[in-house]
Specification:
By secondary structure, this protein is of the alpha/beta class. It has one domain: 3-Layer(aba) Sandwich (Rossmann fold). Helix content is 49%, strand content 15%. It has a seven-stranded parallel β-sheet with strand order 3-2-1-4-5-6-7, with helices on both faces. Helix 4 links the parallel strand 4 and strand 5.
C-alpha cells in the first residue's frame, strides 16, 4: 500500500516522535496521540512539512473511551488503520521493591500494560474489518533481562511481551501481525529520568557491546521495518534493538 495509515500512541517525545517522523518521511498518513495539545499541534505541522497527511488526537491510553475514539477518528479520517505503534509508557518510580506500593504499581501498569491491552483491543477491531494490519508494542530489553531497582517497570514490560505473543497467535488468521520492539539503553527523556545522573547513564551505555546509547531514530527505523511488508513473515517476535546489550 503506497500510503499506509499509521497510528502512534505516546508520539510526542522520544521514540514515538521519531517513529512518527520516520513514517511521515516514507509517505505514510500519520495519526499521533498524546495528552498535550500544543505539542501535538507542533508535531503535526512538522509531519506535514514532509508532505504527510497528519492528525493529532488527544488521548490517554488508560481510558478506554479515549482509546476507542482515537481508533475511530483514525478510521473516519483515513478510511482504515494499517499500522499501530503502541509506544505510550512510563518508567514509573525506580527504586527497590521495599519502596514500591499499590499506587506505584498501578501507576506503572495502568499505562504500560492496560494501555497496550486497550489499544490493541480497538486496533485489532479496526484491522479485522479490512483483513490485514501490523501492530508493534514498545517493550524494553529489561522486559526479559531484568534490572535491579526497576522491578515494577520490568514486570510491566515482561507483561507486554507475553501479551504481544498471545495476541499474535489470536489474530494471525485475520491477516494481522503483532510484534514488539525492545529498546536497549536509548538516549531519551525517560532514560534521563530513570538514571538520574549522567554518570549512571554512562554506565548503561558501557554495558552495551557497542559502548553507546541508542538513538530514537535507530529505534524508529526498526519499528518501520517490522511493521512493513518486508517483515511480512514475522509475527509474535520481540526484536531487540540494543547495541548488543543482550549478548553480553
Amino acid at each position: 500500500m503506497d500510503q499506509p495509515v499509521v497510528l502512534i500512541t505516546g508520539a510526542l517525545t522520544g521514540i514515538g516522535r521519531a517513529a512518527a517522523v520516520a513514517f511521515a518521511k516514507k509517505g505514510a498518513n500519520v495519526v499521533v496521540t498524546g495528552r498535550r495539545d500544543e505539542a501535538g499541534s507542533e508535531l503535526v505541522e512538522e509531519l506535514r512539512a514532509f508532505g504527510a497527511q497528519a492528525e493529532f488526537v488527544n488521548a490517554d491510553v488508560r481510558n478506554e473511551d479515549d482509546v476507542r475514539a482515537m481508533v475511530d477518528r483514525t478510521v473516519a479520517r483515513f478510511g482504515r488503520l494499517d499500522v499501530a505503534v503502541n509506544n505510550a509508557g512510563t518508567e514509573g518510580q525506580p527504586g527497590p521493591i521495599t519502596d514500591q506500593s499499590a499506587e506505584t504499581f498501578n501507576a506503572t501498569f495502568d499505562t504500560n500494560v492496560l494501555g497496550v491491552v486497550l489499544s490493541m483491543k480497538h486496533q485489532v477491531r479496526a484491522m479485522q474489518e479490512k483483513g490485514s494490519g501490523s501492530i508493534v508494542n514498545i517493550s524494553s530489553t529489561y522486559g526479559h533481562e531484568g534490572a535491579a531497582g526497576a522491578s515494577v517497570y520490568v514486570g510491566s514490560k515482561h507483561a507486554v511481551e507475553g501479551i504481544t505473543k498471545s495476541v499474535a497467535l489470536e489474530v494471525a488468521k485475520d491477516g494481522i501481525r503483532v510484534n514488539a520492539v525492545a529498546p536497549g539503553p536509548t538516549d531519551t527523556g525517560m532514560l534521563t529520568r530513570f538514571t538520574g545522573t549522567p554518570e549512571n547513564k554512562a554506565v548503561l551505555a558501557a554495558e552495551t557491546a557497542m559502548g553507546r546509547l541508542g538513538l530514537s531514530e535507530e529505534l524508529a527505523d526498526a519499528i518501520v521495518f517490522i511493521t512493513s511488508a518486508e517483515a511480512s513473515y514475522i509475527t509474535g517476535h520481540v526484536l531487540n534493538v540494543d547495541g548488543g546489550m543482550t549478548t553480553n
